Amino acid sequence: MRFVTRFLVGAGVATLLALGAPVAANASTETAAAPAKATSTVTPPYFHDTWGPYYSANHKAEAEGEVTVHKNSYKKWYWKKYSKVVKKCYWKNGKKKCVWVKTWHKKKVWKWVHDYPFTVDSKLTNHKWWGKWRFHCAWETFKVVNFDDSVYYKSFKNCTKHSKYYSFDGKDAKAIYVQVGRGNPNEPKGYFGGWEHVYSQA
Length: 202
Hints:
Radius of gyration: 38 Å
Structural class: alpha+beta
CATH class of the largest domain: Mainly Beta
Oligomer: single chain
Protein name: Secreted protein
Signal peptide: 1-27
Order of helices and strands: HEEEEEEEEEEE
Number of helices: 1
Helix content: 10-25%
Largest sheet: 5 strands, antiparallel
Keywords: Signal
Organism: Planobispora rosea
């Protein structure tokens, strides 16, 4: 009787182990197959906005677009000069004399420096691509004012009936303006709108 009981118990345990093995195998397989989630961080721009639409004086040229500005910060090392008053002693005629003397020293220090790279995107539309050669093109001229108040210009044209897309990059702009006008394929000639706001440093 003991032999029969032991046999039945042993057979039951073996059956449970056999049934449980596939479950455990499946569980481990599913766990291993689960992919790891990758995380990534994207730095948002310092400034982003749309501009326009702006027009030429006769409304035959139209410009609009977006401007994006990023902010980069880094440490800049430099030498800083500073003064220090020290006591200097010397012997004269057998007597010790001391005086306070101002001395100059320098040490290397750092400060935070920032630059602001930007991208201006534009869509330039020509609403009248026929007629007089002198005025059959749409023109947009960008005026960029830097932090040091220096100025430069970027111009683009469209002499076709389809809109054209332009983009240019720069750095450290205090303000950006655009003027829309009409002209020939070589240069703008007239019908200028005003200098319109695209971006200004807060």
